[in-house]
């Protein structure tokens, strides 16, 4: 018995181009209400230009320690542009596997810098990156790669990004 999944059937030669654009427009239309809410949250949250204030609003606990504040701000200053550019590549990727690779590499890189503060920092990067239709990209990954998202590091990375996206939606 052959075991095929949607992700295995859609090859790099089939999906890119016109087919992907039409498919993604369908995702956008089906998630229009959620994406409008997400966009309005991004606009509201990005008005806060002070990084530390936004991080604290997102749940970062400074523990009233000036040293930990300067450390997290140094990490942000050193890496934010690189993390934003890396995460924004998800918008120009056609394949679900490519989008997932971007997420996994971003989470892996962020965990090396600060594993303890990953959730508020990832939420911060999601807000500052201003990815258009992030929910559609995540749904696209989920629909085409569902089987590999069930466990392991890949599943952890995807679930972490999806959780941060939902968290931003609920703010």
Question: What is this structure, in a nutshell?
Answer:
With 171 residues, the protein is an all-alpha fold. The chain has 9 helices and no strands.
Describe it.
The protein has 171 residues and is mainly alpha-helical. The protein is built from nine helices and no strands. The longest helix is centred in the middle third of the chain and has 23 residues, at 66-88. It is globular. The relative contact order is 0.16.
Instruction: Report the portion of residues in β strands.
Output: under 5%
What's the total helix number? 9
Distance between the termini: 47 Å
Q: What's the rounded overall pLDDT mean?
A: 84
Q: Helix/strand-derived class? A: mainly alpha
Give the helix level as a range of percent.
over 70%
Overall body shape: globular
- Unreliable spans are none
């Amino acid at each position: 018995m052959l075991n095929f999944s949607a992700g295995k059937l859609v090859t790099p030669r089939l999906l890119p181009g016109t087919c992907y654009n039409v498919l993604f427009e369908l995702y956008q239309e089906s998630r229009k209400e959620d994406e409008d809410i997400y966009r309005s949250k991004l606009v509201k949250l990005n008005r806060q230009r002070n990084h530390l204030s936004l991080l604290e609003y997102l749940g970062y606990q400074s523990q009233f320690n000036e040293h930990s504040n300067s450390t997290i701000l140094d990490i942000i200053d050193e890496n934010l542009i690189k993390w934003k550019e890396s995460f924004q590549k998800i918008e120009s990727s056609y394949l679900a596997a490519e989008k997932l690779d971007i997420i996994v590499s971003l989470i892996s890189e962020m965990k090396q810098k600060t594993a303890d503060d990953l959730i508020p920092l990832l939420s911060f990067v999601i807000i500052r990156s201003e990815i258009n239709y992030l929910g559609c990209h995540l749904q696209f990954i989920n629909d085409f790669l569902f089987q590999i998202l069930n466990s392991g590091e890949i599943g952890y990375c995807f679930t972490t990004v999806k959780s941060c996206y939902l968290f931003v939606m609920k703010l």
